[in-house]
Specification:
This protein has 129 residues and is an alpha+beta fold. It has one domain: 2-Layer Sandwich (Alpha-Beta Plaits), CATH 3.30.70.100. The chain is 36% helix and 31% strand. The chain has a 5-stranded mixed beta sheet, sandwiched between helices. It starts with a strand and ends in a 5-residue tail after the last helix. The protein binds flavin mononucleotide. Flavin mononucleotide (FMN) binds next to helix 1, strand 2, strand 3 and helix 2. The site of flavin mononucleotide has 18 residues, from helix 1, strand 2, strand 3 and helix 2.
Amino acid sequence: MLHRVIYASEAVGATGVSTLTLAHILGASEANNRRDGITAAVMFHRGHIVQAMEGRRADLDRLMLRLLADRRHTGLRVLVDTPISSRMLPDAISVCPDPRALLERIGVVEISRLTANEAEAMLDFKYAA
Ligand SMILES: Cc1cc2nc3c(=O)[nH]c(=O)nc-3n(C[C@H](O)[C@H](O)[C@H](O)COP(=O)(O)O)c2cc1C
């Protein structure tokens, strides 16, 4: 049984802004997610982070524990946690290339008040440029 989890959090310092922080996060994510059969997409926008991930329950739970302990972001809140019949995310990890366009298309005004429905809608446009 596969599950999907989507969370939002707030970046600490240069997380997601500097190339180096991004490279560190993506490097670990690529390796770990491949190992664990997790697919994921992450978005960084003006200090806000939204990440969706899909995989087996135990693997997602272990990842969530690492994410909760990661001081590069804070205020993590789970928006969606649901069983799924098939994946929407094809890659071990991908980064949304144009968060502003994505949010505009969905009509999100405030990421800090992102709803579960809006978070799910973001998956449809995950690679929107
Ligand atoms: C915004 C953000 C997204 C992350 N996404 C993932 C991820 O998808 N997979 C992952 O394994 N680690 C991810 N991490 C890193 C984890 O919090 C943790 O540092 C890492 O899994 C530890 O891996 P290691 O035990 O191989 O060093 C992310 C961290 C941040 C700040």
